[in-house]
C-alpha cells in the first residue's frame, strides 16, 4: 500500500479521499489555489502545496504543477477526484511517465470512453444495448438530417466530447434540425474544442440508471449495483438513490452484466460508472461510461457497507478486488441530495458569499454529510458552488425519505442562497415519494416545487421579534455587568422609558409584506401583537441562534440568525428570510435589494441576467450585484422591456446608482 498520496482536487471530494486515506494510515498531500489557502481540504491534509492562482485553468488544471507537487512531497500516487483532471488522458500519461500511480483506469480506457461516439462503437462490438441513433464519422449536415428523419423525432443531438449536461440539443421536428445542429456544434467547439456530434432517438420519460463497476489489475470486474439519478434539472443530477425503485433482480443482473461487459471491453481498472437510459418499461440502453469516482458514489457505499475510495487505493496499489460478485449485497436504501449555493426561485442562479452560519444535521449511522466547507468559509465564484452532499440511509425507501426530510429540516445555511427548501419540497413531492421517476420530474412538478409563496405566518414574525428582544436583553445584561453603574435604569431592557408607556414596535419585511409587531413588556415575558393577534412569548436564545420558544404555552424550537440586516428564521422545516427594518431609515437595508432598479448599496456588477432589448415578466432577474459579500438580484418591477444596462459586468457601482433603464409594459 502507498505511504503517501497527493489529491489533485479540492472541496468535498478532496476531504472525502483524505478521510479514507487517514483511516488507512496513508499520508496525504493537498494542492490548492490562492483562493483556497484556508480551505477545509488544506486544513485536513498532512501537507499542502500551493499550485497557482484562483482560476482552475491556472491551478487545478495545470498538469505540470500537480506532478511537480507530487514529486516535491514524495507522494507515490495521485487521486484525481472527479472533474478537473480526472478524465484527462494527458494527465494520466504524465503520471505514468513520471513514475506516479494514477488512481484510476489506464489511459487507454479513458481514451476509449472519452468520446460518446467512439464509446458507442465499442459497446456495439461488446453486445451492449445502445440508444438507436447515428454515431458514425460523417458530419455532413444534410446526411445527419436524413439520419434524424430515419430515427424519427424527437431526436437529441449530442456533442461527442460533451459532458456535464452541456452540448445537447433536443429537436422536436425535421425543420428545426439544421439550426439546432449548427448551434450544438458551436457550443461543442467552444466548450470542448471538438464539434463532432452524434444523433440519438430522444427517449420519452426516461430514467437515468447507472451501474457502479470496479475492476482490478488481475482481470476481475464486478458491479456494485445501480443508482437511480433520474431527478435532474437541465440534465444535471439533483437527487440520487440506490437501489433504483422497482428494479427487479433479473433486470439488475442484466444491467450489471452489460456494465461488466462494457468495462471488460476497454480493459477497465478501478472505479467506473456505466450510465444507461431506461424506458419506463425497463428496457435500457448504454449512454456513456464515466471513468472515475462519481459525485453520487456515497449512496452505493451506504447500501453495500463498503468504502469505494479504499477499494480504489487497494486496486491502484495492485491488490485484487476485496470481494467477488457473489459476496456483494444490498442492504436498505440510500438517498443523496446535493446542497448547492444557488437560488431555485431565480432559475438556480449560483450564489457566492461567506457562510456566516452553517449548521449541518448531526452525522450518525443514518446521516452522512460530505462537505468541503465549514462556517465562515466562502463559496467563491471560482468553483462549483456545492456546499455539501447530504446522504441518508435506512432499511427501506420510505424510511430513508423520512430521514432525508428531517435532515434537510435540520440543515441551516446563512450567507448564500441555497436549495435546501427546494430539496425538501422535492423529497416530499408525491411523484418522488411514489417513485414515479423520470428525468422530466422537476419540470412536470414545477407548480408543487415552486409554489407562489404565501404570506409569512404570524408565528414567524413573533419568533423573529422574540429573538430580537432576547438578544437585546442579553446584550444589555452584558453591558451592565461591565458598567460602573450596574443598577442604572438605562440598562434595563423592559421597555422602560422616561415619560413613555412600555410599548414599542419592531418592523420586519418579507417581499412586499411589512409586519409591525407591537411589544409590551410583562414581568417575565413579552406580549406580542401583530395583525390583530396577540400572544405571550418567552424563550431562551443560545449564542448559536437556537431559540426555545413558548408562544401562549405552545413550545417550538427554532433558529434565528441575524446577518446583514436580515433575520433568517428556521422553524418547522422551513427557512424564512426577513428584512429587519429600522424605522428611522425607512428605505431599510436587506429587503430593499429586490425589485428596485437602483443599487441598494455600493457593489460590483457580477452578471447581467437578461439581454438588452428583452421583454421580461415581473420579477425576472435583470442584473446581479455583489455587495457586502452577498449577491443581490435586481429584478424587473413589472412586466416590461430592458431599454439599456447602465453598467457592464465588473463595474463598481455607487449606492443608489441607476442600474437599468427599464420601460414597464403598457397596462
Ligand atoms: P453528459 O455527459 O453531458 O452527462 P449524458 O449523455 O450522460 O450527457 O446525458 C445526460 C442526461 O441527458 C441523461 O441523464 C438524460 O437525462 C438525458 N439524455 C441523454 N440521452 C438521452 C436520450 N437519448 N433521450 C432522452 N434523454 C437523454
TrEMBL record:
Superkingdom of origin organism: Bacteria
InterPro entries on file: ATP-grasp, BC-like_N, Biotin_carboxylase_complex, Biotin_carboxylation_dom, Biotin_COase_C, Biotin_lipoyl, CPAse_ATP-bd, MCC_alpha_BT
Names of required cofactors: biotin
Pfam families hit by this protein: Biotin_carb_C (PF02785), Biotin_carb_N (PF00289), Biotin_lipoyl (PF00364), BT_MCC_alpha (PF21139), CPSase_L_D2 (PF02786)
UniProt KW keywords: ATP-binding, Biotin, Ligase, Nucleotide-binding, Transit peptide
Record-annotated ATP-grasp domain positions: 120-317
Span of domain Lipoyl-binding: 587-663
PROSITE patterns in UniProt: ATP_GRASP, BC, BIOTINYL_LIPOYL, CPSASE_1, CPSASE_2
Gene Ontology molecular function: ATP binding; ligase activity; metal ion binding
Descriptive protein name: Acetyl/propionyl/methylcrotonyl-CoA carboxylase subunit alpha
SMART domains for this protein: Biotin_carb_C
Every Biotin carboxylation domain range: 1-447
Organism annotation: Pseudothauera rhizosphaerae
CDD domains attached to this UniProt entry: biotinyl_domain
SUPFAM superfamilies: Glutathione synthetase ATP-binding domain-like, PreATP-grasp domain, Rudiment single hybrid motif, Single hybrid motif
PANTHER family in alphabetical order: CARBOXYLASE:PYRUVATE/ACETYL-COA/PROPIONYL-COA CARBOXYLASE (PTHR18866), METHYLCROTONOYL-COA CARBOXYLASE SUBUNIT ALPHA, MITOCHONDRIAL-RELATED (PTHR18866:SF33)
Amino acid at each position: 500500500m502507498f505511504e503517501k498520496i497527493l489529491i489533485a482536487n479540492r472541496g468535498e471530494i478532496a476531504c472525502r479521499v483524505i478521510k479514507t486515506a487517514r483511516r488507512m494510515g496513508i499520508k496525504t498531500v493537498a494542492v490548492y489555489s490562492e483562493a483556497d489557502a484556508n480551505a477545509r481540504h488544506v486544513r485536513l491534509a498532512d501537507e499542502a502545496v500551493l499550485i497557482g492562482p484562483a482560476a482552475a485553468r491556472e491551478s487545478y488544471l495545470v498538469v505540470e504543477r500537480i506532478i511537480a507537487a507530487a514529486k516535491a512531497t514524495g507522494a507515490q500516487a495521485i487521486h484525481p477526484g472527479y472533474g478537473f483532471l480526472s478524465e484527462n488522458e494527458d494527465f494520466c500519461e504524465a503520471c505514468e511517465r513520471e513514475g506516479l500511480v494514477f488512481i484510476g483506469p489506464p489511459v487507454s480506457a479513458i481514451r476509449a470512453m472519452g468520446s460518446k461516439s467512439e464509446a458507442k462503437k465499442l459497446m456495439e462490438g461488446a453486445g451492449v444495448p445502445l440508444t438507436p441513433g447515428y454515431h458514425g464519422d460523417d458530419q455532413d449536415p444534410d446526411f445527419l438530417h436524413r439520419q434524424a428523419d430515419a430515427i424519427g423525432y424527437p431526436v437529441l443531438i449530442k456533442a461527442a466530447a460533451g459532458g456535464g449536461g452541456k452540448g445537447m440539443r433536443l429537436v422536436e421536428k425535421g425543420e428545426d434540425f439544421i439550426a439546432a445542429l449548427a448551434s450544438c456544434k458551436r457550443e461543442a467547439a467552444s466548450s470542448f474544442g471538438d464539434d463532432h456530434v452524434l444523433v440519438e432517438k430522444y427517449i420519452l420519460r426516461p430514467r437515468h440508471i447507472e451501474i457502479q463497476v470496479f475492476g482490478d489489475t488481475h482481470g476481475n470486474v464486478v458491479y456494485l449495483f445501480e443508482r437511480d439519478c433520474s431527478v435532474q434539472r437541465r440534465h444535471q443530477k439533483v437527487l440520487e438513490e440506490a437501489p433504483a425503485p422497482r428494479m427487479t433482480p433479473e433486470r439488475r443482473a442484466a444491467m450489471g452484466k452489460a456494465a461488466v461487459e462494457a468495462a471488460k471491453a476497454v480493459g477497465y481498472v478501478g472505479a467506473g460508472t456505466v450510465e444507461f437510459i431506461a424506458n419506463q418499461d425497463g428496457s435500457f440502453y448504454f449512454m456513456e461510461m464515466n471513468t472515475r469516482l462519481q459525485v453520487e458514489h456515497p449512496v452505493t457505499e451506504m447500501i453495500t457497507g463498503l468504502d469505494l475510495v479504499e477499494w480504489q487505493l487497494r486496486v491502484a496499489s495492485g491488490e485484487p478486488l476485496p470481494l467477488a460478485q457473489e459476496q456483494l449485497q444490498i442492504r436498505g436504501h440510500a438517498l443523496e441530495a446535493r446542497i448547492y449555493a444557488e437560488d431555485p426561485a431565480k432559475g438556480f442562479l449560483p450564489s457566492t458569499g461567506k457562510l456566516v452560519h452553517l449548521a449541518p444535521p448531526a452525522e450518525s449511522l443514518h446521516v452522512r454529510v460530505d462537505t468541503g466547507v465549514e462556517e465562515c468559509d466562502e463559496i467563491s465564484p471560482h468553483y462549483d458552488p456545492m456546499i455539501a452532499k447530504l446522504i441518508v440511509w435506512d432499511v427501506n425507501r420510505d424510511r430513508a425519505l423520512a430521514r432525508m426530510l428531517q435532515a434537510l429540516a435540520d440543515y441551516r445555511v446563512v450567507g448564500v442562497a441555497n436549495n435546501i427548501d427546494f430539496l425538501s419540497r422535492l423529497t416530499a413531492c408525491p411523484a418522488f415519494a411514489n417513485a414515479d421517476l423520470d428525468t422530466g420530474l422537476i419540470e412536470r412538478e414545477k407548480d408543487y416545487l415552486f409554489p407562489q409563496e404565501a404570506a409569512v405566518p404570524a408565528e414567524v414574525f413573533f419568533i423573529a421579534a422574540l429573538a430580537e428582544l432576547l438578544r437585546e436583553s442579553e446584550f444589555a445584561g452584558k453591558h451592565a455587568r461591565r458598567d460602573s453603574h450596574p443598577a442604572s435604569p438605562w440598562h434595563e431592557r423592559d421597555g422602560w422609558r422616561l415619560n413613555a408607556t412600555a410599548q414599542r414596535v419592531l418592523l420586519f419585511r418579507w417581499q412586499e409584506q411589512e409586519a409591525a409587531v407591537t411589544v409590551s413588556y410583562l414581568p417575565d415575558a413579552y406580549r406580542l401583537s401583530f395583525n390583530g393577534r396577540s400572544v405571550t412569548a418567552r424563550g431562551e436564545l443560545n449564542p448559536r441562534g437556537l431559540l426555545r420558544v413558548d408562544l401562549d404555552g405552545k413550545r417550538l424550537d427554532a433558529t434565528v440568525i441575524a446577518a446583514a440586516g436580515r433575520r433568517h428564521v428556521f422553524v418547522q422545516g422551513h427557512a424564512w428570510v426577513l428584512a429587519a427594518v429600522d424605522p428611522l431609515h425607512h428605505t431599510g437595508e436587506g429587503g430593499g435589494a429586490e425589485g428596485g432598479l437602483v443599487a441598494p448599496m455600493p457593489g460590483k456588477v457580477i452578471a447581467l441576467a437578461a439581454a438588452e432589448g428583452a421583454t421580461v415578466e415581473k420579477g425576472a432577474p435583470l442584473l446581479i450585484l455583489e455587495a457586502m459579500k452577498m449577491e443581490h438580484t435586481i429584478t424587473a418591477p413589472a412586466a416590461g422591456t430592458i431599454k439599456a444596462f447602465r453598467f457592464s459586468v465588473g463595474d463598481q457601482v455607487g449606492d443608489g446608482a441607476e442600474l437599468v433603464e427599464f420601460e414597464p409594459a403598457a397596462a
